[in-house]
What does this fold into?
Amino acid sequence: MKTEKPFWNPYAAGLVLGLVLLASFVLTGRGLGASGTFKHLGAAALHAADPTWAEDNGNIGSFFSPTRSSLNDWIVWLSVGAAVGGAASALAAGRFRVELLKGPRASREHRWIAAVAGGVLAGFGAQIARGCTSGQALTGGAQLALGSWVFMFSVFAGAYAVAWFARRLWI
Amino acid sequence: MDGPLSQVLKLSHGSEMLISVLVGLGFGWALERAGFGRSTNLTSVFYGRDFRVLRVMFTAIVTAMIGLYFLDLLRILPVSSIGILDTHLWAALVGGLVFGAGFIVGGWCPGTSIVGLVSGKVDAALFIGGLVLGSVLFTLGFGDLRGLQDAGARGRVLLHEALHLSSGSMVFLVALFAIGAFAAVGRIERAVNARGGASRAAAADDDVSAAA
It folds into this structure.
């Protein structure tokens, strides 16, 4: 097995991430984001099942136009870039490995279920809040948007509140 | 320049999408190098063991915030020309709580799950399946949930406007807050790890005596 490179110092990583966010503001006027991509994937599936219903839906209707695929959207392309950039970094650092990450006391089956359930909650919560840790907390946090700061503290509060109940998954 | 490059140059949709891919490359690279391709690194912040997540996030926010402040001051990029997020107070509060619960149960957030997936983490793939399902459930129930998404709508409100401060003072205060948070979490980490280390050593002793 190749030895893995160490992770960056967290402040250095934060500085680079902040500069990427700033570059995004300068280049396109948008910040970063991720949950929108999964909303788009779900929307495309709903549209495939029932185009009329999807186009009339208030949450996703605006995604669809006769001229362009709903997936041809900036946030989907940003995620494509993030996947390629993340893969390149993981491979270059010798960190790519197919594995299930969990705490020492968690069973595989519990971790599988928790991963899906956590995804459902996060996907649903991001829809309520119109964004996730990238699209709300990071982007709006740097803009000093009030709602984004409320969201960020709320995310930490929600996670800390549930952490004790989820401890067998992680510690 | 009086706005983002894509607006000033009136870039085509294709060019703008290409820029998004390039920004994404940096985004994914930075997240992976930060250690965010591992759910176990992400969740340890919620057990007080490793505040890497908070350090990276707050440093990134402060960096971009200071950058935006000076770009606005120098009239290179007026803040009014970028997409400032509107505030929906109750939506942010409730959505944040639900999202936070999902974060600790699932072990990822949406951006990091992309990096986890391409790092080979099975739990990231499952989390992504959940994300799509959660978004679809919200869309299916949108008729009843629309009010929640709009709850507490205040339009564009920036922190310094709400607190009646100048933007410069606010930038300074947020940076100061971040530095204070870095100092505080360092102390918490040392306390938790000293105690955790002691109890883990004690547990190991128990195992040895049980074996003996």
The mean pLDDT of chain B is 94. The radius of gyration of chain B is 22 Å. Chain B has ten helices and two strands.
